[in-house]
C-alpha cells in the first residue's frame, strides 16, 4: 500500500490485542521513528518506542483511555511551531505503520518529564535554556487490532469531515487530490481546524479558532501538522513539487496564519 492510499484506509484503533507485535515489526517501527523529519530543524523532536506498554499505563496510573501493547512517546523542546512539527513528523510514521499492517491511535499526553526519565533516554538539562529542554508532548498507541476491530476503513466508508468548499473555496483542479488528502486528516475531537486560501502558485494555511480553545489548543496545533503532511503526500502522488514559506500574512477573523505552500518552478 502506498502512503497516499493509507491516508484514506487508515483509521484510529480503539481496541488493541494484548499480543505483542513481532520483533521484526518492532525493529521496523524503531527505524521509522529514528528517521523522522520535520520543517523546523532547530527543534529536537524524538519518537521513543516503548515496546513494554505497561510502562506507559503504570506511569499514567492507568488513566490512558486506550490500552495497547506498545506506544510511541513523542518528546520535543518548545521551539517555533513545535506542535505542528510533531504532527507533521509523526503522521508519516503512522501511515508507514499502517502499510506494515499495524494499528495506531494518537493520544493526549498527561506525563511530565520526571515521570518518564526512568524508561526514556532524555538529554541532560544542565546549562540549557527552558526552550531547549525536551518534554513529553504526545503518545501514539500501536499494535494489532483486537478481534472484531478492523485495521482499515472499508473502501465504501465515508469520512466524517467537512466538504471541500468548507476548507478551500477556490482552487485549481490540479490540487484536488492534495486538498482531499488534507480534508480527511484526523484531528483532536474531529475539530478539523484548517482553512486554506489560494494564493499565486499555492495556498496560505490557517488554523481556525474553536470553542474550548484552551483545552484543545495544543492538540489542534498537532492536528495542523498532521493535515500538512497529508497535503504533502497528496502533492507527491501527483508529482507536484512544493516548498513551505512564511510570509507576512495577517491573521483573519477567528483564523491564525500558520504557513504557506508554494509550487516550485512555476
Q: What's the helical proportion of residues? A: 25-40%
Integer tally of domains? 2
- Report the portion of residues in β strands: 15-25%
SSE sequence, one letter per element: HHEHEHEHEHHEEHEE
Strands of the biggest beta sheet: in what spatial order? 1-2-4-3
Stretches where pLDDT is under 50 for at least 5 consecutive residues are none
Q: Sheet bearing the most strands, described?
A: 4 strands, antiparallel
- Helix/strand class: alpha+beta
Structure commentary:
- It contains 8 helices and 8 strands; from the N terminus they run H-H-E-H-E-H-E-H-E-H-H-E-E-H-E-E.
- A hairpin with a 2-residue loop joins strand 5 and strand 6 (202-208).
- It folds into 2 domains: 3-143, 3-Layer(aba) Sandwich (NADH Oxidase), CATH 3.40.109.10; 164-263, NADH Oxidase (3-Layer(aba) Sandwich), CATH 3.40.109.
- It has helices at 3-9, 23-34, 54-59, 82-99, 113-116, 164-167, 176-183, 213-237, and strands at residues 46-50, 70-76, 103-107, 135-143, 194-199, 202-208, 242-245, 255-263.
- The two termini are 31 Å apart.
- The mean pLDDT is 91.
In short:
The chain is of the alpha+beta class and 266 residues long. It contains eight helices and eight strands. It is globular and about 50 Å long.
Blueprint of the fold:
Layout (H helix, E strand, L loop, with lengths): L2 H7 L13 H12 L11 E5 L3 H6 L10 E7 L5 H18 L3 E5 L5 H4 L18 E9 L20 H4 L8 H8 L10 E6 L2 E7 L4 H25 L4 E4 L9 E9 L3
Antiparallel strand pairs: 1-2, 2-4, 3-4, 5-6, 6-8, 7-8
Helix pairs in contact: 4-8, 7-8
Amino acid at each position: 500500500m502506498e502512503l497516499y492510499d493509507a491516508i484514506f484506509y487508515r483509521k484510529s484503533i480503539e481496541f488493541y490485542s494484548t499480543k505483542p507485535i513481532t520483533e521484526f515489526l518492532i525493529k521496523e517501527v524503531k527505524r521509522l521513528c529514528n528517521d523522522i523529519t520535520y520543517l523546523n530543524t532547530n527543534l529536537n523532536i524524538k519518537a521513543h518506542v516503548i515496546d513494554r506498554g505497561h510502562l506507559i499505563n503504570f506511569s499514567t496510573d492507568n488513566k490512558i483511555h486506550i490500552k495497547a501493547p506498545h506506544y510511541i512517546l513523542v518528546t520535543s523542546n518548545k521551539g517555533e511551531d513545535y506542535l505542528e512539527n510533531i504532527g507533521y513528523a509523526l503522521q508519516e510514521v503512522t501511515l508507514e505503520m499502517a502499510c506494515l499492517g499495524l494499528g495506531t491511535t494518537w493520544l493526549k499526553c498527561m506525563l511530565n518529564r520526571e515521570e518518564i526519565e526512568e524508561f526514556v533516554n532524555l538529554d541532560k538539562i544542565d546549562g540549557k535554556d527552558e526552550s531547549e529542554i525536551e518534554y513529553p508532548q504526545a503518545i501514539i498507541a500501536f499494535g494489532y487490532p483486537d478481534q472484531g476491530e478492523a485495521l482499515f476503513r472499508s473502501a465504501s466508508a465515508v469520512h466524517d469531515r467537512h466538504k471541500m468548499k468548507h476548507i478551500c473555496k477556490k482552487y485549481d483542479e490540479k490540487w484536488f487530490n492534495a486538498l482531499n488528502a488534507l480534508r480527511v486528516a484526523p484531528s483532536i475531537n474531529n475539530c478539523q481546524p484548517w482553512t486554506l486560501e489560494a494564493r499565486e502558485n499555492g495556498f496560505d494555511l490557517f488554523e481556525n479558532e474553536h470553542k474550548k480553545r484552551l483545552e484543545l489548543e495544543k492538540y489542534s496545533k498537532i492536528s495542523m501538522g498532521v493535515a500538512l503532511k497529508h497535503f504533502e503526500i497528496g502533492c507527491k502522488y501527483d508529482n507536484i513539487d512544493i516548498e513551505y514559506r512564511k510570509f507576512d500574512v495577517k491573521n483573519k477573523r477567528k483564523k491564525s496564519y500558520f504557513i504557506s505552500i508554494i509550487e516550485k518552478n512555476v
